[in-house]
Amino acid sequence: MVSSLAVDITPSSKAFKLFFNHEQIRTMSRVKRRTTHPPYWHVLKNNQRDDEKISSDNLRFVREVIQDKYKNKSPIKGSDLGIEKTEWDPKTKRSGVIARNIGMQHMWEKDGKKIICTVLQVLDNHVIRYVPPEEYANSVIGAKMFKNRKPLGCLVVGAEATNPDRFTRQYCSLFNEVGLLPKKRLARFIVTPNAALPPCTPLTAGHFVIGQAVDVYGKTIDYGFQGVVKRWGFKGGPASHGATKFHRRGGTIGTGRDKARVWPGQKMPGHMGSERRFNRGLKIVRINMKYNIVYVKGTVPGPTNSIVQIFDTILPRRKFTEAPPHPTYFPPEDGTLPQEDIWDSSLHVFGSPSISV
């Protein structure tokens, strides 16, 4: 005699929730860490070009309209912005800048020691918008970030102005209030209210000082799908003595006894790189004010020609002890040019005598 067992699988039953718990699946550790598409709350950026060609006369007319619309919109002096002068304190959180990694360069200290520096060029950064703490705390990201702590404001900074024809109307509308050309890059920086900046404020390499420690945020080099030898540094199998097709394999990933399964976090072949990482506490050893270039000691995430973000470090023992350019650096109002190339005191300046008698 076989007894039948009826199981209730309605959406409100316990069995349905046990086998179809979507919330549990979404919170598992083995979800995708990399996404190739922007978040759903971002405005559509790239414009879909049609096959219809524009005549040379119409193209010339469009360029003239763009030049007239965006001509002389960005202020270049701090006095024109009407920024309120506030005092700096150790808890002040200033804005960061968007820069491009243009390569590596060796430097020499005065005692002959060679150090490796990364060359970062600060692009034409401008403040696009300031979001007050009350408004930013009600946004999607701000609600998660300031769930259990005091909310702070947010500065939207853009870099690399380009032709508006390349972007959609919705994306270009983000820059209508500012009056700037659309920027290729946008970034958010959390700031305290006393470090807020009005729109159109330019940000240059003078935002930082020599000897300062900064944090650099970027995306690491994308190596694609790699095996365990390159991805995790496994030794691999023997080269000979009976080894067949096992030279670069990972070996066993579990047993059939107590483990009886593959544990989460097991080191296996997979996608390597393309992760967003921080390099903290990098020292600034040289600043070129003419070309807006910052030299930091050490390496930063990402390959050459990649985009990174630079901001003041959060390491407690490497924070500011003296007031930096607050809320940012502005050229002197009397028209005097700043020092073009500023070096750290520990570095040997090329062109200067190395031996003094």
From TrEMBL:
SUPFAM superfamilies (UniProt xref): Translation proteins (SSF50447)
GO molecular function: structural constituent of ribosome
InterPro entries: Ribosomal_uL3, Ribosomal_uL3_bac/org-type, Transl_B-barrel_sf
Domain of life: Eukaryota
Ribosomal protein among keywords: yes
Keywords, alphabetical: Ribonucleoprotein, Ribosomal protein
CC per GO annotation: mitochondrial large ribosomal subunit
Pfam families from the UniProt entry: Ribosomal_L3
GO biological process: translation
Family under the similarity heading: Belongs to the universal ribosomal protein uL3 family.
PANTHER family the UniProt entry points to: 50S RIBOSOMAL PROTEIN L3, LARGE RIBOSOMAL SUBUNIT PROTEIN UL3M
Protein name (database record): Large ribosomal subunit protein uL3m
Lineage, top ranks: Eukaryota, Metazoa, Ecdysozoa, Arthropoda, Crustacea
